[in-house]
Amino acid sequence: MPRRAGRCPRSGMKDRRIVIVGFMGSGKTTVARALAQKLGCDSMDLDSFIAEREARSPAQIIQQDGEAAFREIETRALRNALENSAPRVIALGGGTWTIEDNRALVVQSNCLSVWLDAPFELCWERIVSSTNTIRPMAPDRESSRERYAFRRASYSQTDLRVTVSDDEFAETLANKIIQNGVKGDA
Hints:
CATH topology: Rossmann fold
Mean pLDDT: 86
Largest sheet: 6 strands, parallel
Helix content: 40-55%
Number of helices: 8
Number of strands: 6
Order of helices and strands: EHEHHHEHEHHEHE
CATH class: Alpha Beta
CATH architecture: 3-Layer(aba) Sandwich
Distance between the termini: 32 Å
CATH superfamily: P-loop containing nucleotide triphosphate hydrolases
Strand order of the largest sheet: 2-3-1-4-5-6
Strand content: 5-15%
Radius of gyration: 16 Å
């Protein structure tokens, strides 16, 4: 029996969108793609969606207009993405989930929220090794560590927490999300 386009055919996740949250470098976009592939639906990276809509990257927006202006743009983009009710996996930017209005939008849209809980050292290693990505919210190790510590409280408000280690592949993490797609830890 052919599946309908845009549907995620797994029980428990059949008609739900899934949002992936976590700190910079935690693997949100990569895991979102792997999860969407396993579920047979589309994935979306919110930062890429913003870049397409605004004709400049989130880093450029933050550098040119400031973080507050970027957060307003981000919330509008999230609202727009969630208006499309087709089930899919959405990788949020590292700070998206820290905004109360954004968390409310996700909850109101009946999305399953998943926190990729990666240790700071792994995130930092990925941040500094991504030479083609400008990260104005991670200018140095100490301020990044402070931002990481601050954001953990909001990340802990997700439906599902998936612990990330440096030796796990995105497919393994996607399987954990599928297996534990109800409130709890993986």
